[in-house]
Amino acid sequence: MTSAYLLVSHGSRDPRPAIAMQQIAGLMAEKLHLPEKLVGTGYLEVVSEPLHEQIRNFAQITVACGCHHLKIIPLFLFPGVHVMTDIPSEVTQAQQAVGKDMLIELQPYLGSHPGLPIFLQKQIATIKAQAWILLSHGSRRPGSQKPVETMATYIGGVAAYWSVAPSLESRVQELIAIGYKEIAILPYFLFSGGITDAIAQAVEALKLQFPGVSLYLAEPLGVSGELADLIGDLIYT
After folding, report:
1. 179 contacts 136 by C-beta, under 8 angstroms
2. Backbone angles phi, psi at 109, to 5 degrees
3. 45/82 same-domain check
4. Which is one Pfam family of this protein (predicted)?
């Protein structure tokens, strides 16, 4: 039985993440040898419809194509409230709405993929620095920071957060106090957008604050065939 797939992300007022999501969906359809209409995108926030309605509408389109199995893939990097609570609730509502016409399954979130650390290492391989900071959005949900800290350790760095402590500035100060003069920052975000723009501005301000230190800013994960491969693996989990 052919499955359809809905890639779910947070949503943004900035148009760039939505464009990137469409590009990733296109890569997924190509890799799975599916019509593009069987790989869709959905968003939790900053959209006119709640996610369960987006899922229901997409399910109706795919049922009309003869598809009766829909897999929801959360493109989130850590298990915050959206992954652990919001998305499962929305999927449950959508399943109740579509009834027996469609089986809807929630797949593991992207950040849980065991191959993600290797992907990140390749991402930073071209930047030479004495110390690395993995900068994530952060969450107040208990335990949600542990995967980020584990990932930071894997790439030989330390974790910092945009919305909770420890902050980027405090981590930079700590590393400078230890004696590091070359520090690189990897934004642990899927795509460029408003937050990554703000991070770039913050890094420029830190360069002025610490003129004797070289600060490098890497790119977020971005659209690539390698990322599409990781996402594709999640549909078999």
Report:
1. no
2. -80, 155
3. yes
4. CbiX
- 95 plus 140 within the same structural domain: no
| Helices and strands: H and E segment counts in the chain | 9, 8
φ, ψ (nearest 5 deg) of residue 163: -110, -15
* Amino acid, single-letter form, for residue 178: I
> Which residues in the chain belong to E strands, given as ranges?
4-9, 39-43, 69-74, 103-106, 131-136, 157-161, 182-187, 214-217
Same domain, 175 and 230: no
Amino acid at 22: Q
| φ, ψ dihedrals at 203, nearest 5° | -65, -40
User: What digits encode the pLDDT tens for the residues 195-226?
Assistant: 999 999 999 999 999 999 999 999 999 999 99
Tokens 């369960």 belong to 52
| Full-model pTM | 0.94
